[in-house]
Amino acid sequence: MEAVRFQLRIRLSRYQSTAAISTTNLLSPALLERARSISAEHAQLSKNLANKYDNTVARKLGQLSSTAKALEHWESAHNVCATYSLDSDYVDAMQSLSELEQLLEDPTTDQELRTLATEEVQSTSQSLSQLASQLRASLVPPHPFADLPCLLEIRPGVGGSEAGLFAADLMRMYQAFCKRHSLCCNLLKLDELPAIKGCDIMVQEVVLEVADAGAYDMLRSESGVHRVQRVPATESNGRTHTSVASVLILPRFPDDEADDLGHNSFDDPSSDYYVDPKDVRSEIMRASGAGGQHVNKTDSAVRLTHIPTNIVVAMQDQRSQHKNRAKAWQILRGKVADVRREAREEEKAKLRLRFLGGGKSAGRGDKIRTYNWSHQRVTDHRSGITLNQLDNILEGGDSLDNIMQSVKAWFREKDVSALIADEEIMAANHASKSK
Question: What is the DSSP secondary-structure string of 320-367?
């Protein structure tokens, strides 16, 4: 076998000077150019940091390091593939993948060399594919709210009392999920619909706070319309009903406005996080509903209305007006920031559609998942995954994790496609200006 490897090494050397390396089969030219630009910036920042330490430069360097490292690994593997030393069975040096492919195309290559070269091509191609995938993922900028805690809002949609029951099921599902992952989950707000005899609670609106850093990124795949198909507890004739509930994942900002959020400051009018107090109408009222004597005797309830967007947030769950106001502002900031981010992404999607064509982008009103009781089946309509593990999912179990991971993979592919489109648009604009 060593003799065969030696022959393979000799034959490969003949192609070394003439072999052409194809980069477009795994990475688009636009993405590869972007990666090399980021790598060059990373190298320059490293030199600057070596001469003089600066927090801003160090933070920027950390953000670019994953792309620079992924590009280094990809180019190392793409430009070379395994060749063997004369006195060892392990990989000692590297040659280009295209050299192996040319060797396979050479009719004079004997069968033993061809078999060995085929194995090396398959192994190296698989490695390149994985490295290209890692490089593409590293080029996608992190979501602006990825590192933040989050607020999880659930509201029933069409379906009457059954929608309220389903919203309660979703609330318990997410509470169980957070408990299993040791996440700090607090109930900020719970408004119930009038109870029906023999039924569990029916939710009109619920807001959960998941206070751990990175919770937004963990749960953002859950935003959208969830559909349920089942025989309701209120149905006497055994007919299957279809109802929906909406889930909204919002960023949860620090209680202290002095906390550092980088360039996304509460005081920066250009920031998504900024809300001008002059744009917010504040109302104080008596709390209503169940809750004890304080409900009808104290002006503790707070309602905030963001006039430009007409977003309304009402809080009355705390006895203290101050606490209700603080929580209402927290939710309002999250909703305003989410609306601004969504509007910006919609503008980008329209621009891509105008330049490159394509379908309608998914929005918060789109149906994302169906829970079918009779077949014990849950289907996510984005990633296409279907699991017959309804009970485990509603218990916040491993199957819910599997669905979330499949959606995150779908997000990554979608983000990469958007990134390629943006690069092509920039290239087209640059070309038109240079004419």
Answer: -HHHHHHHHHHHHHHHHHHHHHHHHHHHHHHHHHHHH---PPP-TTSE
Residue 371: enclosing H or E segment and its boundaries? strand 367-372
Taking the C-alpha atoms of residue 341 and residue 363, their distance in angstroms, rounded to an integer, is 12
Return averaged pLDDT per consecutive 10 residues of the chain, 435 residues in all: 50 43 53 81 86 82 81 67 33 46 70 72 69 75 85 89 91 96 93 75 91 93 94 79 92 63 58 82 76 57 90 84 86 87 74 52 71 95 95 96 94 81 70 66
Give CA–CA dist 97/169, Å, rounded.
54
What is the spatial distance between Cα 242 and Cα 257, in angstroms, rounded to a whole number?
43
Residue 419 contacts by C-beta under 8 Å, 6 or more apart in sequence? 31, 34, 139, 140
Closest residue by Cα to residue 392 from 369, 409, 376, 370: 376
Strands (E), 126-217: 150-156, 185-192, 203-210
- Rg, the chain, Cα only: 28
